[in-house]
Amino acid sequence: MGDEYRWTDDFYDSLHDAGVDWRDVLHILAVHPRIRHHLGAVLRIAAPARNGDWLAVSAIEEHDNTYTLVRARWLDPDETQAARKMLQGGQ
Q: Where in 1-91 does DSSP place strands (E)?
């Protein structure tokens, strides 16, 4: 079974504040390859959005494989470069 994501009004507000389109969030939640980092109950996902710019999304795991989305933001150029290297195996 795949992951389920819960979208809240607070999350939609944070998207607006960060200048992120909800369709880009949907895109990076489904696209491969992507960076997926799980630390305790916190899940972070980063990947290129539809326009090629890198986007990061944070979520909190409420139940097994069920996450509440809490924040999204565009990566800066240094973060983007590091993310690209991670996807290339650190090369």
A: 4-6, 35-39, 42-48, 54-63, 66-74
